[in-house]
Every structure is written in structure tokens, then in C-alpha cells.
Amino acid sequence: MAKIETKGVKGIGPKEKAIKDKIEAEQRAIRAEGERLEAVAKAERDRRAAIEKAEQDRIAAEKRAEQEKAAAVQRERERVAAAAEAERILNEKREANRRIRARVHNQMITAIMAAGFDDDTAKKIVDMLANGEVPHVTVTY
Known about the structure:
Blueprint: H1 14-114, H2 119-130
Helix pairs in contact: 1-2
């Protein structure tokens, strides 16, 4: 059997170890720089995402505020319209009541004049009856 010389192969020499250590250190430095760059890139992405979200939130808040303002304006319009309608109905009822009272009073004046009283006296009697100044007598309209 042939003997293989193993002299100097037992391990890595100091020069090779230094080169190996240097290469490993450079690889670690490259990895660390890559991780740092990735962290910087992630921080920038996160910052941009936060800015974009803040802008979207601002736009959504403005939109909600505009919608709430429009709804408030619409509610105020509806309130004013309802108040105007209520006032119109009340005025119609007042006018109808005034017409009914005038018709009843004219009929009462006519009946009193038919009994022989003059126009002024008949009007005074109707006024007294309408104002409740005659006891035990009420006018129903």
C-alpha cells in the first residue's frame, strides 16, 4: 500500500484561516447591510402606508362631514317646509272658521231682524251671544 503524505493537510493554516475569517466577516457585513437596507425599505413602506392611510382617513372624514352637513341642510329644509305647511293649514282652518262664524252670524242677524229688530240692534245681540255675554246661551259653529 502506498502511503499518502498528509503533512500540512491536518488543518487549515493561519493564512487560510485569516482569509476564511475575512470572507465570513465580509459575508456577515453584506448580510447585515442587506438586513439594514431591508429594514430601511420596510420603514419607508410603512411610513408611506401610514401617510396614505392618514390621507384616506382625512378624505373619508371630509366626505362624512359633507354628508352630515348636507343631511343637516336637508333636515332644516324639511323642518322649514313642515313649519310652512303647518302654518298654511292653520291659516286655512282660521279662514274657514272665520267664514263659518260670519255665515252663522249673518244668519243670526237675519233671524233677529225678522223678529222686528233693526240692523244695529241685531248686530249687538249677535256680538253679545258670540262673546258669551248672555248667560245660559252658547253659539255652536
